[in-house]
Amino acid sequence: MNAPQPSSAELLATYDAQLRGEAEVYDALSWTRDGPLYRGVLDGGGFVSYVSLDGIDNIARLVQRTIGHYRDELGVDEFEWKTRGHDERAEQLHQELCNAGFIAEEPETVMVGAAELLSHSVAIPTTVNVRRVDNLAEAADLIARATAMQRKVFNGGPSAEEALARLHRSQGTEQFWVAEVHDEIVCAGRLTLIPNADFAGLWGGATHPDWRGKGIYRALTAARAGAALAAGKHYLQSDCSPMSRPILERSGLTAVTTTTPYIWHR
């Protein structure tokens, strides 16, 4: 018999405790602290997050100081400030970021749940092969084709160079998975094993439009969930689009909050 699953409030509390702050920048090229903020430099730009803004008297000043950090100190052309909808000061932060010229992108739903809920056999066409990209010698070609498909689906996203660089420097915490039909990449996604946490992250899952409705995305997700369990991770987390949310919900993951990226451009 399966153990009772945590409530949405318990899942959110675990998410806040384990996946915010340093857990978000551990794989950055570099990162620093500024009060409650964790400010990282990634391939292609910067990234800002925080655990809590409680006790901060002047959020506007913190925002301006962060702009100066990336613009003047680092010469970064753009960076993302990640927010969560359940934070007590979310509306105030939203207003200050908009006042400072940030552009809000579309909100995503944060899904959290037990990895065992997704680790199961999924029937897919026999011509489809789901596998992890283990051979780094072949990774460049596979990832180039996979990211080209993902960028078309998402109308943007990491480049092949960025994805390959992240895979090489991850020291095993990053996995890239693909579903192939002969030499065509029909679905792809990443699994990130978060150090010092019970979580693994599901990222970038995309299916070619011609191959949707065949269970391939669910099979790729199930394979990644199995890999997470094998690595000792008990929970999965995904910031998902409206397209992915129903699939993850049917698998048993729970929507615990929303996340909205705010982008600053030079």
Task: Describe what you observe in this structure.
Helix content is 33%, strand content 31%. It is an alpha+beta fold. Helix 4 crosses helix 5. The protein is built from seven helices and twelve strands. The radius of gyration is 19 Å and the shape is globular. The mean pLDDT is 93. It has helices at residues 8-18, 59-74, 90-99, 136-154, 160-169, 216-230, 245-251, and strands spanning 30-34, 37-42, 45-50, 78-84, 103-104, 108-114, 128-132, 174-181, 184-193, 199-207, 235-240, 254-265.
- Specify the overall morphology: globular
Number of DSSP strand runs? 12
Q: Helical segment tally?
A: 7
Mean pLDDT: 93
Helix content: 25-40%
Low-confidence stretches: none
User: Beta-sheet strand percentage?
Assistant: 25-35%
Radius of gyration: 19 Å
State the end-to-end CA separation: 55 Å
For the report, how would you describe the main beta sheet? 12 strands, mixed
Order of helices and strands: HEEEHEHEEEHHEEEHEHE
How does the helix and strand content classify structurally? alpha+beta
